[in-house]
Amino acid sequence: MGQIDKRLAELGITLPVAAKPVANYVPWVRTGNLVFISGQGPVEDGKVVWPGCLGVDVSLEDGAKSARLCGINVLAQLKDACGGDLDRVKRVVKLVGFVNAAPSFKDHPKVINGASDLMVEVFGDKGRHARSAVASPSLPMGISTEVEAIIEVE
């Protein structure tokens, strides 16, 4: 068991099997030492968790939990891209977080912190990253958050 797998176990996180795409795209692409991970939603056991719109029917706390689950699904794709060895990760370069939000909602960064905090918890300083947190008037399948990532690997 690698160091990152041990860290995940310490955190009580079991990564799911990497999800299959829901449309015409691939879940990740590696070019050189970079892995680009397609947007991951808050899906667990094939079901959307915390659906809806921040500022309407999803609380800030649940939005952050939703983003954290997106981050867990990003890690599942990353593990697949690394042939099962997350110790190959050199750095989380960038996360882009989308928040299904009402026009009056202003706390997008606090929501996407759910995913950002996870990356630092798992990878330490290698998990610190550049980031965008943006609003969207809707997201696929009614999800409240979506996170995509760029990761440098060995």
Shape: globular
Please name the fourth-level CATH homologous superfamily. Answer: RutC-like
Assembly annotation: single chain
The amount of helix comes to 25-40%
Give the percentage of residues in beta strands.
25-35%
What name does CATH use for the topology?
60s Ribosomal Protein L30, Chain: A
Spans of at least 5 consecutive residues with low confidence: none
Mean pLDDT, rounded to whole units? 97
Strand order of the largest sheet: 1-2-7-5-6
Number of domains: 1
Structural class: alpha+beta
Quick one: how many beta strands? Answer: 7
Give the count of helical stretches: 3
Q: State Rg.
A: 15 Å
Q: What is the CATH class designation?
A: Alpha Beta
Q: Indicate the CATH architecture.
A: 2-Layer Sandwich
Largest sheet: 5 strands, mixed
C-alpha end-to-end distance:
18 Å
SSE topology string? HEEEEHEHEE
Protein name: RidA family protein
Domain Endoribonuclease L-PSP/chorismate mutase-like: 6-142
Pfam family, one: YjgF_endoribonc
